[in-house]
Amino acid sequence: MKNVILSTALIFLFSNFSYAQLNLPNASPDSEFKQQIGFIEMEVKYSRPSARGRVIFGGLVPFGEMWRTGAHDATTIHFSDLVKLNDHDIPSGTYSLFTIPNQDEWTIVINKVAEMHGTSDYSQEQDLVRFKVKPEKSTRYYETFTIEVNDFTKDGATLYLVWENTQVRLNIKTNVDDRVMAEINDRINVKKEDRPSLYYQSSLYYFNNNKDLKQAYAWIQIANNKSQDATYLQLQAKIEAASGDYTSAIKTLKKSTDLATAKKLEQVIAANGKLAEEWNKKSNKK
């Protein structure tokens, strides 16, 4: 009889205990974001612990020890195509991101096993790459651990790991140039597309990215022969000036300005005026 009473009491106790549990928000909420960089898409999934008055690096996150770079499950990072991360090749795929913080140097670890709870299943044999970076002082205090992407260029960006007063920057570089060059070759030399805008865009890409200036000039001349345009002529003049032929550049720029004036293209007219002033000074120095 006593055993029955005890069992009943325990059931009642645990039943009431379970009902008494509060549904509280996660102290380290999960977060994920997608970001396009160049032609690729990156996706990051992580948890975001907060400092709550604690010393973080060298305290809550000990120096010299593997850190899941967040909370709960290991942080994961996905790339839809090959990228370079601080000059290390990272093939397309999903990886776990670990770090080993130290006061003057961090070790960044990209591991091929994506699904792990913290560091419990981590194996160094599965590392894709390891490399060192220097931590920096962040521009402000970050109460909550943050991963973000900024500083975009046409083919790259910077991945920031920030918490407390510390930030670490990882440089992401994509293969935009290879893809654009391949497309230019395919459309002009293989498919033989014959549109002036294609020749202009190809010439502009070569000019802006310090590639073969003679090829850029040949393409912009084709574009202008097919359909003279104030912007096309302006680019031709820029290439002539970059080649040191300021006499031809000034003449071509005047043609561009005349067309722009007829079509009331105020921005082109203003830009041409500045270029003409600059080139006349350089021409007179010769």
Give the % helix.
Answer: 25-40%
The Cα radius of gyration reads 30 Å
Strand order of the largest sheet: 1-2-3-6-7-8
Number of strands: 10
The major β-sheet equals: 6 strands, antiparallel
Overall geometry comes to: elongated
Count of alpha/pi helices:
7
Approximate strand percentage = 25-35%
How many domains make up the 3D coordinates? 2
| Mean pLDDT across all amino acids | 92
What does this structure look like?
With 286 residues, the chain is α+β, with helices and mostly antiparallel strands. It folds into two domains: 25-174, no CATH class; 176-285, Serine Threonine Protein Phosphatase 5, Tetratricopeptide repeat. It contains seven helices and ten strands. The protein has helices at 2-20, 176-190, 196-208, 213-226, 230-242, 246-262, 266-285, and strands spanning 30-37, 40-47, 75-79, 83-85, 88-90, 93-100, 106-111, 127-133, 136-150, 156-174. It is elongated.
Tell me briefly what this model is.
The chain is an alpha+beta fold.
Blueprint (SSEs and pairs):
Blueprint: H1 2-20, E1 30-37, E2 40-47, E3 75-79, E4 83-85, E5 88-90, E6 93-100, E7 106-111, E8 127-133, E9 136-150, E10 156-174, H2 176-190, H3 196-208, H4 213-226, H5 230-242, H6 246-262, H7 266-285
Helix pairs in contact: 3-4, 4-5, 5-6, 6-7
